[in-house]
Fold:
Amino acid sequence: MTYKLATKLKRNSQNMKDINIENAVVIAMFHDLYELPWQNIGVKKIMRNKHGFVHPIEAITNAITWYPEYFKSKERAMIIIDGVIHHMFPLAVRRIDGTDMELNNKEKYEQLPKKYKDMIKLSTDIGKIGHYSLRKSFFIEGRIMSKADKIVALKKDIGSLNGYIALLSGNNKNIKKKHNKNGDKMKLKIGNVELKNNIILAPMAGVNSSAYRNICLENNAGMVCTEMISDKGLAYENAKTLKMIQITENEHPISMQIFGSDYHTITSSAIQMTKISPIDILDVNMGCPVNKVVKSGAGSALLKTPEKIYDIVKSLKENLDIPVTIKIRAGWDNNSINCDEVAKLASKAGVDAIAIHGRTRSAMYTGNVNYDYIKMVKDSADCPVIGNGDIKNIESAEKMLNLGVDGIMIGRAALGNPFIFKELSTYFDTGEIIEKPTKEQVIATLLDHARRLMLDKGEHIAMIETRSHAGWYLKLIPQTKQYKSSIVSIKTYDELEKICNVILKS
Structure:
């Protein structure tokens, strides 16, 4: 039943194309992997009283113990663990310390490797031993399995699921209809890489972690970009830089952005990068206005020497077998607007796409984006052009696309708001205007984001990064300014969760 439901959703819903059917089925296979069935004569009453509350954790403990090959990938392990534990929702309240488990299962739980116990604890949202939790699976595969389990239990057929499929797909009664003007503009191919759609997460330093990239993709971003990677950091095999180029199996399509000023170093570092990380596209930062980057001759500084841009692109195209793109600004300042010249030279060198931010370097992020500069690049380039700058809603996205650009790139408007990708992609694909995320959805995504960061970076670093993200998320919720001072000082996940619970109750 899980296989039938997952297949139907994947086939019939645009928003469900990324369902991993295999993971959903694996969850189904493991969900009842316990040794003492509640139906057994003699223990029926005892087990029936606690079955829905404790057996999921017994099942996942057994699955990890007996079938470790399914848990080698951290990302897959988390999906499976989360799905099994929560498949009995709302009967998913349980103790994690093994108090209610049969003796043999309690012993097995204690013998699990720490990394798996940590994942289980994260999935159950616990802050301390004995704490209870109640929630649905965070992953769509787990929710599908949960529904399939209930269908079987109630002896219903998949044919009665149209309403549920519509709900999961976002096609509910709260959606307002609007005519579709841009459905044909959603497709974008860069080199040999076909994007999910033409709405892209811009590279942002200190923001675009793996956790955030995955969340944006789950909200239907067409492609995500990494934060910018130093060519010298790669050349010197800096540990922090090497960590930054690690990506997960679910992060495709993905563009990894590199910055530097010398085509020799950029090329050799890019070659090294592609050997380590299975990226789809390489992007070169030629637009960053930050002093630290510009002083090294990288970022926007390259706009002063267009011949360097030509050399960089040409060298990368000759040495890499993946598409090469660049991200630029209009020029160094208002007296040196040369984005059209840069576009022509980059096209001549073979660039596969150009993203253009419609401001000069000297403007930084002040004033308004100049659409004329973006149109200049579109008219000059022989490749797809992606418009960037001041895209924050349907109206501004539509205005950018009406320039004739092939795609749009969203940066600051996506801070704390990964939902913008679903909002825009739904509108341009179907003409529908979906409701803004609820307070509950925003808080759930914030907590999910924090947990993913913890899995990747540990609680200490994760909470430091979460402080900024939490502030951005809370901007979506009215009357939360009073929590800002508390948010910026959180040190543990428990502290974050307590603040979020207060907000939910307010």
About this structure: The chain has three domains: 2-160, 183-430, 439-505. The chain has 21 helices and 13 strands. The first helix runs from residue 2 to 12. The CA atoms of residues 444 and 464 lie 19 Å apart.
